[in-house]
Amino acid sequence: MERKTIFMNFIRIFCIVVFIFQFYLLTKDYLQFNVRKETINYIDDAIEMPEVHIAIPYYYALDLNFVLNNKSSFDQACGAFFNKDNCDVLETDGGKFYKWLGNILTLSDIEKYSYPTETFIKKIVWSESSEDPLKTGKCKIIRKASSTTQVLIIRCLDSHGLPLKVSRTKAIIFNSSVLFNFTLNTTIVLLKLIYPGKALVDDSSLYLVCTSAKGKLTWCGIRFTKHTEISLPAPYKKMCRNYDRRQTFEDCLNTHSIEQTGMLFPETTVPLDRYSESSQMRFNSPLYGNSSSLMLKIYRQCQSVVTQQMCNMIRYSYKMATSSQDIAKDQQEMRLSFIATSEPDSLTESKPDFPLSDYLILSGSLFSTWFGISIMGQLLAASHLLCIPYRKSTDTVDFKTKIRSNSISIRPKGKKSRNNLTITRISPIA
Ligand SMILES: *[C@@H]1O[C@H](CO)[C@@H](O)[C@H](O)[C@H]1NC(C)=O
Ligand SMILES: *[C@@H]1O[C@H](CO)[C@@H](O)[C@H](O)[C@H]1NC(C)=O
Ligand SMILES: *[C@@H]1O[C@H](CO)[C@@H](O)[C@H](O)[C@H]1NC(C)=O
Ligand SMILES: *[C@@H]1O[C@H](CO)[C@@H](O)[C@H](O)[C@H]1NC(C)=O
Ligand SMILES: *[C@@H]1O[C@H](CO)[C@@H](O)[C@H](O)[C@H]1NC(C)=O
Ligand SMILES: *[C@@H]1O[C@H](CO)[C@@H](O)[C@H](O)[C@H]1NC(C)=O
């Protein structure tokens, strides 16, 4: 008896230990919150119009007459900036001065001396209707400034703040695949496409360059595809956050930079009227004395604010083809066309690798493996119990029961068969 109890306790402990170990492994696996990615490629008929960022170097974006009209004060600024005694604005090599113009001018000067947007873009032609979306207010051009370029942003939003959609089929059938196009009155532009509110942080390398020259009509055709990546929120791996990562980053850079140097951080892009309360606001530059280590510090500080990925990240991949033809010698024209491509867009979704439902099912079955009772066994046992009174009553009846056979003979018509099929129904007689 004693030995039997010891043996039973040993079995109990063994089962519990193995169960706990397996349960621990399962739970550990679940708590890793691993994700797997699933990508779908698709071709949608409704194409969302991306935000087009057109960056024009200040040399082409500003009415430079103001420099000539005020040459002496710019010579002075040039001298201070490049730390030279006799700086002649017109003679600085390779237009170096103009490249840094954005650092020398204040935001209000940039606003004052830049050409109005109509100088660059008069109208937009799109495949949706014959109306100009700039006239109807469907698209807007927003002006921003960076330290080297003026940025024009074409933004087309519907009433919900989402990008306007154009029909691929319409563009293909009626407009030789051109979704929208416009003429840009300038010599050189840097282009990029972003989804409103979803710009990447390190996307400065993604510019396309389109140039035009005197006596040429340059055509730049841009095809783009959209790539959406949806991540899972915490606690899943690659935790994401719903925010405008690029904007948060730039705001952080500028807030710290203004606090510590009184100037904007270089490489950021700000709306021209953003800092209108301080008329002297301008972009900082490593050329201003010893601020570069400070810039580095601020940059690192702000990078740590935007380590989290966006939950819903959209980027575009794009390709540009250019061609040009001769026109009158004194003219030049640049046309930008955005063309529907037959390449599919992609949607990448993160899915939990070990979802909660799987965890519940597996832990449930693990528990019942070690301690559980089989439902079938229980039902059988129950049926056994139920059958006891019935069997007792049939036992007594048994010898009185006559079996009556109802035979149905099936014989193929016409042909005499040797084998008769007999279906016998046995029924107890009441
Ligand atoms: C010339 O520069 C001075 C000082 O920067 C400024 O007050 C003045 O408005 C400028 N004149 C023009 C024509 O830009
Ligand atoms: C094109 O831009 C130049 C300045 O770069 C401007 O003088 C000219 O008027 C513009 N042309 C048109 C047609 O707007
Ligand atoms: C597309 O075709 C329509 C009708 O022919 C026209 O009104 C529209 O301007 C065209 N759009 C483009 C981008 O060529
Ligand atoms: C837009 O594209 C259409 C068709 O390719 C062309 O006829 C039209 O001149 C273009 N418009 C502009 C403003 O580039
Ligand atoms: C350079 O650094 C020194 C010491 O930190 C500081 O006093 C000076 O103002 C700085 N100069 C500039 C141009 O920022
Ligand atoms: C089949 O049934 C018929 C009629 O009931 C009978 O005459 C015949 O002998 C049976 N044949 C065989 C092979 O049992």
The overall strand count is 19
Distance between the termini: 55 Å
Number of helices: 14
Largest sheet: 7 strands, mixed
Descriptive overview:
The protein is of the alpha+beta class. It has three domains: 2-32 and 355-371, no CATH class; 40-352, no CATH class; 386-428, no CATH class. The chain contains 14 helices and 19 strands. Strand 5 (139-145) and strand 6 form a beta hairpin. The longest helix has 30 residues, at 2-31. The model is unreliable at 397-410 (pLDDT under 50). One 2-acetamido-2-deoxy-beta-D-glucopyranose is lined by residues 66, 69-70, 73.
Summarize the structure.
The chain crosses the membrane at residues 6-27. The strands form five sheets. Strands 1, 4, 8, 11, 15, 16 and 17 form a seven-stranded mixed beta sheet that branches.
